[in-house]
Amino acid sequence: MTAPESTDLDDLLRELRRRDVRLAVRGGQLDYDAPADALDADLIATMRRLKPALLDRLRADGGGDDWSVLVTAPTSIGQARQYQITRETSFPQVLTVAFRLTLRGPLDVTALRRALADLTVRHAALRTRFADRDDGVWQQVLAPRPVPLPVRTVPVDELDRAVDEWASLPFALEREPAFRAVLFQPTDGSAGPPVGWHEFALAIHHGFVDGWSAQPMLDDLAEFYRAAVTGRPADLPPLPAEFVDFCRWEAEYLARPETRRMLREWVDGLPAGTVPMRLPTDRPRVPVATDPGGVLHHTFPPDLVAAVTAYGVRRGATPYAVFAAAFVWLLHDLTGAPTVNLAASVANRTDPRYDRVVGVFAQAALLLVPVVGVTSFDELVRRTAGVTWQALARQAVPSVVQIAALGEAFTNFPCRVYFDLLDMADPVLHLTGLEPAPARDVVLAGSRGDLTWQLRPLPDGGMALLIEYAANLFDAGTVAGWLDRYQRLLRRLLAAPDAPLPRAGDAGVA
Question: Which residues does the UniProt record annotate as the domain Condensation (predicted)?
């Protein structure tokens, strides 16, 4: 079908409605949701030509913003902080949780659309927006509505770029839910889209979801898809709580005298004069908000991971404590700091009511490891393990509250280093009639701190390492050099854990 002969905007909008094409303004861009084959080349050309007028009309109409607000509630402290970072940074996509799934098989797109809508009915966080008011940042749970699922045809060699660009679009956090989905149909030249292959991508702002939410979310989506395909009701028990319930509980928890006492005892137990460490940088420090970030991928071989595990079993320590202890010694060697400060992601789902709830429960627990007087790797592992267990005990306390308890020296401290080991299985989507689809992270521009090391076990016994670093502070070669030193240091420490700890100038380490 050809585009409307008239270029009049009203005629175009009528034609789009007739073809069931839905328009929206997202992050200042024109987005659309359309059935397959609804848009031909002529109509797309007309939309492009009239794009300014379309944007003006949609904005004048509220940008499609006719949401009904069901609940207005306080945010969690972590939510408010992530909203603030998004507003301040030049790379708001750094706080977008995005992943893609390769769907192979006879996909029912209509059923997937219905499943997405049902998913947002079940999980209110996926239909929640922020409200920036005079009395602070609040969250507004909106009434359910269909979730747009655009279907876009993309050449195979442009697929990765298209996914990255789509995931990088900023969210309109104060206007609509920070949750979107898209289906890409890869094409290979004149042959057209391969039968039975779609690339499904999801993007959610980190203010509404964490990594532990991914598998429950995909499980529920699969069940709603099965129900849509078969015509039978979804077999899901009611959720015992919602994310806003957690936010209210957090405020009550932080006001308790025992919570304040726990924080006071933690701070009082630190060595006198504890201050943040400072990593050496290749360039003067500038605000992290302007940093595009850099990424480095590495794999620790199975024999090294097995050695870490075996050592931990003998010493009664977790693999995380062993890996982290070696990292602590590397940072001490780089900075000379008597106390090394790290941040570690913790699930913060100690209440079983929230096991299957989509939301941002995870916290960044602070680990402050004193290294003065440590004489061996055995002792350093014990000390790191003890600090880690203490951090888990206060995992319900947001990092900004922990930092405030540490006092003025840590207020706006510049050096943020994260060290995580994600020992949960990668999320997988099991849609009826299709092959299992593992979720793959879409790594977007931006750096949430100076340095982030994220370990993830591999099926072959190895360990994947993703390093994100502040590219405005460090050269790629500097970070790669630290990684090389770390791996050689770890092997040496495991070989002689009761020997004196090596320094940077020792053979085989520097």
Answer: 74-398
